[in-house]
Design brief:
The complex is a heterodimer of chains A (163) and B (572). Chain A is of the alpha+beta class and 163 residues long. Helix content of chain A is 29%, strand content 40%. Chain B has 21 helices and 20 strands. The chains are: A alpha+beta (163), B alpha/beta (572). The complex binds thiamine diphosphate. The site of thiamine diphosphate has 20 residues of chain B, from α16 and α19.
Chain lengths: 163, 572
């Protein structure tokens, strides 16, 4: 099962490597990991996408909680939640393909940034699934560079993760 | 009071009540060493290798319950210390390690003796810090001691750049620290206690299984009351020996790979396992495939991550094990009339039959010294009261099986990491804390050579420990595995070109003895222990072929122990 774990982390040097070190040392999967400061400058929020059965996820949560720099965490996939990922894809487009590309991008609520006569960047944000779908729709084009942000997310109820 | 960073370091240690720091100097730590020179409150013990410093601090910690403190320099100083830090980490020993670091402006430029101490120690510390500012030193040291000694204890490293130790700041040692991300440990819910006690009262085949946590929490008295009240059998792990007296009729011995047959069978056939401060590690459980198939599990530990890690708990209780045991005892007091010894009468019969096998039996000899015999005699000569440290190998298992401990904090060995080299330096750490007690280091000719340089430290600080070298001219435990699993292909397990240990001991200024006849063992031990103020290195020439039995071999479970050839079998 895929789980998204949100972690509030002390904004200390080395905190990120404690988390990534834990995952590699104990052989836990990381599908993606994002981290950035929050509105409280002493805290960062990290979002980890991982997979495993209940027992493994339970261990991951307990081991994360043991890290002194972890202030709070929550598996947001245990309830309603919102997940978003940003994708940027640099593609080669001929003028003949441009109109079709515009339609696709529009359907995904994305946008197009022109780089040159033959290249543009597709930008879109959505769930990882949506991002996958978009990329499938672009299959006829040549993607020369792809950057995905990894998932970030929040619970979609009134609860909040606090330190 | 305005002080340099170096003086703040030493003053902070003084404020923490630190008596001894085990260390080794070098460039990045020299300001701190200079500060040591200016005071008399905290004594610095100069070891001969940084690994020795960590093990000595560890032995001090294990035998006193107080945190061990280490000071090393940057680069090779801290890398040498890593083995000892990891040893303490695996056994949850409170330790604070201070390491010098290159000057802050040089960090990241591959300066002389620069190593990323925080990075290299991260997987084997409970937490670590890199000091960024002289103003942070006192508070960080306070935090380090707090983290090392509370919850599940462990080592904490504080890395201090050299330039910061020369800067000046106001010294204010905080009374306490608060860390929102390091909360107080959980406490037990009354309902959990009631449920657990209910399960105990209904059990027909119960067993109390206790580990290092009971030792760390100083919970042995409550444990003894509890086991007595319930009338249950009690087994201790390698790390938990001493928590229950070895000669009490309810004690069924150590469990696990080289535990007693009865302890492992009791676990296997139990219907209730009461696990206290123990973590069901693989050396204890054997294969998990058929682990105690009919048992309900009550699992008490202060660290939530050990619950459900290897074995699913039916009644998990995350709290300080001492408090939980006290709460169990209070609840048992209320329910005295519900304790029904007849419920477990059959169980005890079964256990007594297993005990009848005498699974530690070995063939006595009057021509060749059996290692077990030396340990038995050591018990006799020291009245079972000595502090016993050990290295790692067969001798460690013989020590655990045959010494017979009645107290906690007296059996000191590297159970989790299994670090050869631990025995001698940890013994010196114990001796510093217990000057009047007998301290014996049970070792092998392989292990002792991994930290033998600490004989010099023992000389310098007048630490007359007794070294019991069970010299089988083999890396015995390796040889045993090769005999059992590799058709006796003894690849690199023979220790050739051994030193003359008697001459070696004498070269270090100590007394050396070699004993090669069983008849001389007791007399030699008595003679050695009578020399109260001399370190005596006793080189016992032991049976080269002796193996540790019984044994749960790899891939096997509790009910599949391999017994010593020639030992009794169960008459069903
Ligand atoms: C630092 C380290 N290296 C290797 C090992 C693997 N090892 C475990 S027991 C053992 C043999 C120990 O030999 P010795 O100290 O002579 O004790 P004996 O088993 O003969 O009693 C070895 C090499 C270890 N535990 N620690």
């Amino acid at each position: 099962m895929r789980h998204i774990i949100s972690v509030l982390l002390e904004n200390e040097s080395g905190a990120l490597s404690r988390v990534s070190g834990l995952f590699s040392a104990r052989g836990y999967n990381i599908e993606s990991l994002t981290v950035a400061p929050t509105n409280d400058p002493t805290l960062s929020r990290m979002t980890i996408v991982t997979t495993g059965d209940e027992r493994r996820i339970d261990q991951i949560e307990k081991q994360l909680n043991k890290l002194v720099d972890v202030a709070a965490l929550k598996d947001i996939t245990r309830g309603g939640h919102l997940e978003r990922e940003i994708v940027l894809a640099k593609v080669i487009v001929t003028s003949a393909q441009k109109a079709e590309l515009e339609t696709i991008v529009k359907a995904f609520n994305g946008s197009l940034i022109t780089v040159s006569d033959t290249q543009c960047i597709v930008e879109m944000s959505g769930s990882s699934e949506k991002v996958d779908e978009l990329l499938k729709s672009l299959a006829s084009l040549t993607i020369i560079e792809l950057a995905r942000s990894g998932v970030t997310g929040l619970s979609s109820d009134e609860s909040s993760l606090t330190a | 009071m305005q002080l340099t960073g170096a003086d703040i370091v030493v003053k902070s240690l003084e404020k923490e009540g630190v008596e001894f720091v085990f260390g080794y100097p070098g460039g990045a730590a020299l300001h701190i060493y200079d500060a040591f020179h200016r005071q008399n409150e905290v004594e610095h013990i100069l070891v001969r290798h940084e690994q020795g410093a960590t093990h000595a601090a560890d032995g001090y910690a294990r035998s006193t319950g107080k945190p061990g403190v280490v000071l090393v320099t940057s680069g090779p100083g801290i890398t040498n210390a890593v083995t000892g830090i990891a040893t303490a980490y695996m056994d949850s020993i409170p330790m604070v390690v201070l390491s010098g670091q290159v000057m802050k402006p040089l960090i990241g430029y591959d300066a002389f003796q620069e190593i990323d101490a925080v990075g290299i120690s991260r997987p084997c510390v409970k937490h670590n810090f890199l000091i960024q500012d002289v103003e942070e030193i006192a508070e960080t040291i306070k935090k380090a001691f707090h983290i090392a000694t509370t919850g599940r204890p462990g080592p904490v490293l504080v890395d201090i750049p050299k330039d910061i130790t020369a800067q000046v700041a106001e010294f204010l040692y905080p009374e306490s620290v608060e860390m929102r991300s390091y909360p107080e440990p959980a406490t037990a819910q009354p309902s959990e206690i009631v449920t657990a006690v209910e399960a105990m009262l209904n059990a027909k085949r119960p067993v109390v299984y206790t580990g290092g946590g009971v030792v760390l929490a100083h919970a042995q008295e409550g444990l003894r009351d509890m086991v007595k009240t319930l009338g249950f059998p009690c087994t201790n792990t390698l790390m938990g020996l001493g928590a229950y007296p070895h000669d009490d009729p309810q004690f069924i011995g150590m469990l696990g790979m080289h535990g007693t047959y009865e302890a492992n069978m009791t676990m296997f056939e139990s219907d209730l396992i009461i696990a206290l401060g123990a973590r069901f590690d693989d050396r204890i459980t054997g294969t998990l495939d058929n682990f105690a198939p009919n048992a309900k599990v009550i699992h008490v530990d202060i660290d939530p991550s050990v619950i459900d890690k290897n074995i699913k708990a039916d009644i998990p209780i995350v709290a300080d094990v001492k408090e939980v045991i006290n709460a169990f005892n209070a609840e048992l007091g209320r329910r005295r009339e519900d304790i029904n010894p007849s419920l477990i009468a059959n169980w005890w019969e079964k256990i007594r039959a297993w005990q009848g096998l005498d699974s530690f039996w070995y063939e006595k000899s009057d021509t060749i010294i059996k290692p077990q015999f030396v340990v038995e005699k050591l018990h006799e000569v020291t009245g079972g009261e000595a502090y016993v440290t050990s290295d790692v190998g067969q001798h460690q298992m013989f020590a655990a099986q045959f010494y017979g401990f009645s107290d906690t904090h007296k059996w000191i060995n590297s159970g989790g990491l299994g670090t050869m080299g631990f025995g001698l330096p940890s013994a010196l750490g114990v001796k510093i804390a217990h000057r009047d007690a007998d301290v014996a280091c049970i070792t092998g000719e392989g292990s002792i050579q991994m930290c033998i340089q600490e004989l010099a430290t023992c000389k310098q600080y007048d630490l007359p420990v007794k070294v019991i070298n069970l010299n089988n001219r083999y890396l015995g435990m390796v040889r045993q595995w090769q005999e059992f699993s590799y058709e006796k292909r003894y690849s690199n397990s023979y220790m050739d070109s051994l030193p003359d240990f008697v001459a070696l001991a004498e070269a270090y200024g100590h007394v050396g003895m070699q004993i090669d006849k069983p008849g001389d063992v007791e007399g030699a031990l008595r003679e050695a222990f009578a020399m109260k103020d001399r370190l005596v290195f006793m080189d016992f020439i032991t049976d080269q072929q002796e193996n540790v039995y019984p044994m749960i071999e790899s891939g096997k479970g509790h009910s599949e122990m391999r017994m010593r050839p020639g030992s009794a079998s169960l008459a069903e």
